[in-house]
Design goal:
Layout: E1 9-10, E2 16-20, E3 23-28, E4 31-36, E5 42-46, E6 49-53, H1 59-80, E7 83-90, E8 95-100, E9 103-107, E10 114-117, E11 122-125, E12 131-136, H2 139-152, E13 162-165
Antiparallel strand pairs: 1-6, 2-3, 3-4, 5-6, 7-12, 7-13, 8-9, 9-10, 11-12
């Protein structure tokens, strides 16, 4: 049995889970998320819990069992609490400015500013010019938007300049050595 897949998912108050066939819809205060579960995996509600089961111990079913449970759990957590990813900007003159709840403008050493548009359901905050906070209900989308922002100017290994995750450690290389 999958150790992840067999754990029940608790449904917090204020969250509704509706299942019709293989389609799972989760609605909560932060929004609505939907998922089509793989055909062999069964998702059902039992009281205030969601259970994910598989038909047999075939390798593919074992893999999909844990995956489906994790995806449904991320949906429940996302619509109740939401997900956050923080980025830091390091470099002289590097900064971000908010152009609205889902628009951002980055000054990261290019001759021009780089505009960033967030998709529906994602909000971008700039509490200080060197910090960016990405918020949303969809864990995958929050991570993808944060990765796209980081990709504009990845941290370089010599001075550490660039955009990095707040918990990321940049390994520094030694520069040239004098003779």
């Amino acid at each position: 049995m999958s150790r992840i897949g067999k754990q029940p998912i608790a449904i917090p108050s204020g969250v509704e889970v509706s299942i019709s066939g293989q389609h799972v819809a989760v609605k909560g205060p932060k929004g609505t998320l939907e998922l089509d579960a793989p055909g062999e995996i069964a998702v059902m509600t039992e009281g205030d819990q969601v259970l994910v089961t598989r038909p047999d111990d075939e390798r593919r079913h074992r893999a999909l069992h844990g995956l489906t449970r994790s995806l449904v759990n991320n949906m429940v957590v996302g619509v109740s609490e939401g997900f956050v990813r923080e980025l830091e900007i390091v470099g002289v003159g590097y900064r971000a400015t908010a152009q609205g709840p889902s628009k951002l403008e980055l000054q990261v050493g290019f001759s021009h500013s780089v505009p960033v548009d967030a998709p529906e359901g994602i909000t971008l905050e700039v509490p200080t010019p060197t910090r960016i906070i990405v918020r949303g209900a969809d864990k995958q989308l929050v991570g993808q938007v944060a990765a796209n922002i980081r990709k504009v100017r990845k941290p370089e290994p010599y001075k550490g300049k660039g955009i990095r995750y707040s918990d990321e450690r940049v390994l520094r290389k030694a520069g040239k050595s004098a003779k």
